[in-house]
């Protein structure tokens, strides 16, 4: 595998996580200005973070958080605009799903931007409910779910 495609599972106090937050800021919050300080939330420490490193920062990232005994939520999935469509997002999501399976599987939830629904469908996620606006960014989101059994 070419080095730029390798996925690393990292801690919330790592430089990789810091750089992932910079990518999250660029992709999700740039319209709120560089002073916006809500990129990190209270789930960082307890979550599993996956990143693909680039030369200067992080090219792709995503986060998996346990919600209850048999449930997980995937959030903060994003790929640097210049690197989209080359399989990086798929590698991040595959790694997060494998982590969920490793830790017992269960129901995986996420809130997809409408534009990304097709991406998640490829992994078996099914829409649940109606689109709604994100309270943080205003982007329209759709809740999607996937049932995964343990290994
Ligand atoms: C959505 C996102 C994470 C996908 O990552 P990516 O690296 O571009 O996707 P991949 O290259 O791994 O794509 C895998 C497959 O899904 C398809 N795909 C990618 N984005 C898609 C989309 N929005 N809708 C439908 N299919 C999509 C690709 O064509 C590819 O198909 P192929 O295997 O037949 O070539 C990325 O485009 C992104 O960061 N978007 C902006 C932020 C965002 O919307 N985040 C997720 C929702 S909150």
The average pLDDT score comes to 94
Q: Tell me the strand percentage band.
A: 25-35%
Roughly what percent helix?
A: 10-25%
Total number of domains: 1
Query: What's the end-to-end separation, in Å?
Result: 25 Å
Please identify the structural class as seen in this structure: alpha+beta
In the CATH classification, which architecture applies?
3-Layer(aba) Sandwich
Bound molecules: coenzyme A
Name given to the CATH homologous superfamily: Gcn5-related N-acetyltransferase (GNAT)
Radius of gyration, in angstroms, nearest whole number = 15 Å
The total strand number stands at 8
Extract low-pLDDT stretches.
none
The biggest sheet amounts to: 8 strands, mixed
Q: Helices and strands, in N-to-C order?
A: EHEEEHEHEEE
Q: Quickly count the helices.
A: 3
CATH structural fold name: Aminopeptidase
What shape does the CA trace take? Answer: globular
Please explain how this structure is put together.
The chain is an alpha+beta fold and 151 residues long. The protein has a single domain, classed as Gcn5-related N-acetyltransferase (GNAT) (Aminopeptidase), CATH 3.40.630.30. Helices cover 23% and strands 32% of the residues. The chain contains 3 helices and 8 strands. It is globular. The two termini are 25 Å apart.
